[in-house]
Amino acid sequence: MGVETVWIPAAEPFDGESLLGFLGARAVEGLEEVTGGSYRRSVSLNNGAGAVSVRPEASGVQVELDLADPGDADEALARVGRLFALDADPAPVVEVLGSDALLGPLVRARPGLRVPGAFDGFELAVRAVVGQQVSVAGARTVLGRLVREHGAFDAQALSEADPFAFPFPGARGAALVEVARLVAGGELRLDPDTDAAETRARLLAVPGIGPWTVSYIAMRALADRDVFLDGDVGVRRALAALGGDADADRWRPWRSYAVMHLWRSLGG
């Protein structure tokens, strides 16, 4: 394997620091890490495995690709672009949210804040299901154990797993296995090119998956920029600290950014 370095520009301003903080707080041991100002992870692509390292800078990201098959480079770079939301245009977001009485100071302080996407849609769904009703740190611990016991988040492998063998309640395990089955069988796609409404409905029909999980998957894996997690503990804490309420309709069509600014205000 040879290392290739590629530069991907982003529309400025670009708040790569906040992206690294977000990803670092959720980094799963054995899969990814944030260190030395870079995000690094192992990858499984169409033709083989490898590793990707991403260093955000003021106007984009520097990507190091170490892939078994160089033919996977375009796929890897596209996934990096989605994860770091490099095609986002911050201008209309700042125009709408920057003038809001509650969010305005947060938005003006970090006009380049992005909504992180997903390197892999199914992986993000696993994170969301595992993360239901547990802390970020708690979810990291469980996800790290899943990686140790099952390897990478492979839909086919997890679709055949015993739902009661996971280190969380059986109902949640059954939901995870069912999502894996749907993805492995081609009945469910979790990427920005899919029909978001249909995908949401399919996910919500899975026993054990609630509105928060569906919305979180939509916000990150489906790149829906108008999701508001009104039941989220962090969102409620941030609103209480700011002395505001959850009347989020005024933040349309950028409510996902509102969520990110509220989370960021808590230091997360």
Q: Could you tell me the CATH topology label of the domain at 121-220.
A: Endonuclease III, domain 1
Question: How far do the termini sit from each other?
Answer: 36 Å
* Biggest β-sheet strands, sense, barrel: 5 strands, antiparallel
CATH architecture of the domain at 121-220: Orthogonal Bundle
Supply the number of helical segments.
12
Topology as a string of helices (H) and strands (E) = EHEEEEHHHHHHHHHHH
Shape: globular
pLDDT averaged residue by residue: 96
CATH class descriptor name of the domain at 121-220: Mainly Alpha
Strand order of the largest sheet: 1-5-4-3-2
Kindly report the name of the CATH homologous superfamily of the domain at 121-220: Hypothetical protein, domain 2
Give me the count of strands. Answer: 5
Radius of gyration: 18 Å
Structural class: alpha+beta
Percent of residues in helical segments?
A: 40-55%
Estimate the strand proportion. 5-15%
Low-confidence stretches: none
Record keyword descriptors for this entry:
268 residues, alpha+beta, TATA-Binding Protein, Endonuclease III, domain 1, 5-stranded antiparallel β-sheet, globular
